[in-house]
Write a structure and sequence with these properties.
Chains: A alpha/beta, B mainly alpha, C mainly alpha
Strand order of the largest sheet of chain B: 1-2
Distance between the termini of chain C: 53 Å
Structural class of chain C: mainly alpha
Strand order of the largest sheet of chain C: 1-4
Mean pLDDT of chain C: 88
Oligomer: heterotrimer
CATH topology of the largest domain in chain B: ABC transporter involved in vitamin B12 uptake, BtuC
Number of strands of chain C: 4
CATH topology of chain C: ABC transporter involved in vitamin B12 uptake, BtuC
Largest sheet of chain B: 2 strands, antiparallel
CATH architecture of chain C: Orthogonal Bundle
Number of domains of chain C: 1
Strand content of chain B: under 5%
Helix content of chain C: over 70%
Amino acid sequence: MSAARQSVAVDAPLLNVEHLTMRFGGLVAIDDVSFEAAEKQITAIIGPNGAGKTTVFNCLTGFYKPTVGRLALNHPTAGTFLLEQMEGFRIPGKAGVARTFQNIRLFGAMSVLENLIVAQHNKLMHASAFTFGGLLGLPRYRHAEAKAVDLARYWLDRVGLTGRADWDAANLPYGDQRRLEIARAMCTQPVLLCLDEPAAGLNPRESADLNQLLTYIRDEHRIGLLLIEHDMNVVMGISDHIVVLDYGRKISDGSPEQVRNDPTVIRAYLGEEEDEELPPEVAADLAANRD
Amino acid sequence: MTAANDVSAGRVTAKPLDYPAVVKECGLTALVMFGLAAGMVAFRIRDVPGGLEIATRFGSVVAITVIGFFGRLAMVLLREGRPFPVLVTALPFAVVMLAALSASRFVEPETAALVEGYLPFGDVVVNWIITIVAFVLAGRAVWALRHTGASARTVSDREEAMDAFAARIQRMARFLGPVLLASAIVLPLLAFAPNLPFLPKVDRRLLDIGILVLTYVMLGWGLNIVVGLAGLLDLGYVAFYAVGAYSYALLATHYDLSFWVCLPFAGLMAATAGIILGFPVLRLRGDYLAIVTLGFGEMIRIILLNWYDFTNGPDGISGIARPSFFGLPFLRKPPEGVETFHSFFGLTYAPIDRIIFLYYLILTMALITNVFTLRIRKLPVGRAWEALREDEIACRSLGINPRNTKLTAFSIGAMFSGFAGSFFATRQGFISPESFTFIESAVILAIVVLGGFGSQIGVVLAAIILIGLPEFFRELQQYRMLAFGAAMVLIMIWRPAGLLAHREPTIRLPEIAKGKSRSGGDAAEAAP
Amino acid sequence: MEYFVQQLINGVTLGAIYGLIAIGYTMVYGIIGMINFAHGEIFMISSFIALIALMVLGLFGITWVPLALLITMIATMVLTSIYGWTLERVAYRPLRGSPRLAALITAIGMSIFLQNYVQLLQGARVKPMQPLFTGGIEIMRRGDFTVLVSYLQIFIWVLTVALMVAFTLVITRTALGRAQRACEQDRGMAGLIGINVDRTISLTFVMGASLGSVAGLIFLLNYGVIDFYIGFLAGMKAFTAAVLGGIGSLPGAMLGGLLIGLIEAFWSGYFTVEYKDVAAFSILVLVLIFRPTGLLGKPDIEKV
């Protein structure tokens, strides 16, 4: 713990990723990637499939231990946390990093409201004096629970699910499940929210609503957002800063405008020019035919 | 009959049967049935002095094969929308079987014996099962005849209907629960009443069964925390029961401590055992956890059996102190200077007093388990258990410590098992490793499965059916475990959440606020 | 030294039994990702069928040991395979795709059912059998302690090795083996390219059951005593063997079986016979904690 927490340097970015490398056996999923994410900004990580985007998230949220690298989170009040040294389940509570998943992971058999209450587990655990106070029905716990419900209701209103608070999460339509997962992550009151393809499978209208929700979170809650996304409308529409990965390496980093015009990025997405890919003998053959 | 004929001729527009395919399908089933029966059923190994002898049951093999063929044929016909032939064969068959099975009630014993000789199986219970299955097939045929227009019900329809049914049972539990509780409280008092009309005679046997059922209700509720709420399949639950029982027995016999002193200690010991086992293994995947707990249950039994100095091995521990009524023992002739229950209250001594006291003791203990479970479900830790059951990875992303949370469920479940164990020891006055076999764990699990995961009332009903009924119908006793196994499989195929499982949210939004926000331009409500 | 060799011989024989059962666990796990708890009971049933077959042959006067054994083995393999096939068809196939807990409970239920089925049909008493083989080869002697390899043990080794070779050939060289490996990788995709997935899974159960049935026959010949409860412990240990070798890995199952057999033999030989089952179980726990992928298993990366 003491190793993971340091005092905050002035003007340090919210998240500072340095030389992140992740190997699985012989496979290098991420190769020496460094980038920053600031608070009150939406940072998008884009790249073709298999570029290592989700692996970056898994390292940030403690599901994988990076092979090499330093992941410093500068919490505005609690100090600096070195995420790579923390146990995964402590990262959301202590360092304030919350995430959503590419393939939605809700508590399907539990109600929408319960999903949001579970997200406030650690806070409520303390209030219930680790269950003992709660068993006795102490007022302190009842107040804490009421406050937790208030926070949940705030986010339910935000994502438009108040009317479905008692539904089983698994019975919600797809788009609602996506929004509920974001609401659930926000109920942990994070300083950095990591969203793994939040627009996947949404129709254009839902996608526009999502843009609104994300900019609302950025502007009103003043936290940093980290976004993995394929939907370029979302990415270009709301990102303040874009990091491009390809084959585990960072190939571009900058504002949407810069990235859009970066030739390396265009090549990564549209493929290399043809003759560079051809083996020499084929190229020779082609040349012979042309003559 | 004519009506049924009309139906089958008119409205049922089933496509023509592919007879060779049907015969092939039914023939294959018959062949498999024959193969299953050819070894195990056809021959029976009998022990005779000086070795083994083999007896034959070829008649049963033929019966099984024929039943396999026609049973499959009936199912195919029902599936293909031709219920009528099924009805006209299954119903008479069932009626004839029923008549033959009850022959001994109506005719001379010799004739009855003759009739019984024609029954397909030598075993009465198997004959009854065949009869019941035939009735069920006939019933399904009738249902199909009356609902010809309706398309077959899909799995999700059925699930919805079952969930609604389970929900109704749980709503009923609000009334049924107090009624059951009241009758459970009143039951022993009837022992003192004169013989009442319409009520079973309350005697020691009935109370003993009541105590047994309540013990299993308590164990079922305890296991429901682990399996139903936290989703951890614990196949060694009986190990903690054994730890509780031996803790109490050893403390009581060695240190002469009273039940009330030992009870919390026994629970604590069981919970500790739960933590010790759980700590290394709870991070394992579900199926590994199941087999490790299974092995642990067996290991505890082996240790109890072989650690002779400590546990007295297979001989067990006898002379365990009976519980006292808060210090007042239940004794006919107490030692000098000891006040007993009956002398303190100025009663004449009755042996049933102690049984009644034990009954109320386990009733109280079971109720405490229930209240505890109901409360903890609404606390953060209870919700975290359920969340872990649903998705462990999501839990970690929300800052829930999976291992500690599972550990609490595991050890709390173990604790209640330990409490029940010390009750078991004090009731029996004697314990040995024989009481703590895997069968016990299986019975408790069957209660939870049949009752439905997380369903408190379901556990009560299941315990009454699974424990109470076989006590009354002794002849079914040897089929009990067979039926439990089959029931577990069938329930999982039919409804994987358990028969009466239905989940109510543990928390709801206050109503007014919900109405307000709904009117305030709700995007989700407006969207289709 | 002599004592050690004797335990080694006994251990290898035990290991053959566990290895043959363990293959059933590991194959089923590989292809449908579930632990077939009832596999131990399939083994138990096969030992009963083997005993029945031997006794019936005796009634017909077929007492020439090689012929009697051959017929018994074929009959046992065929009849036990039908149990394996039925088990999958009736209990597991309807549950494909349902929650893990449901499949587990079904397997437990099936295990309880089969145990009591045999108890009802054949009685609860232990069934002792006259030894079929006698004698052996003396390989060492010191004082009055002789190290003996019995003809039975040689038969068991030869049979086990022959079966394992045949089985490996089936898996690596035949269309069925390819189909199985394809289903292991991706069942949905295997179905799309025209592999009959249901049939492949059924055949996996049949193969597992028939190997287990040989283990049942060997168990009967080796111990000469069976009852309806033998499937529980043997199944437990074979499962331990499968996990130790790396569940899903076929050579792992064989290796694990051998190791568990040796550990058990040496434990009983040098420590206490009473706690030999505890030893096997402790190994299971230790392996699961420290090396859940087993000795030859593939590491499995958590997918988030």
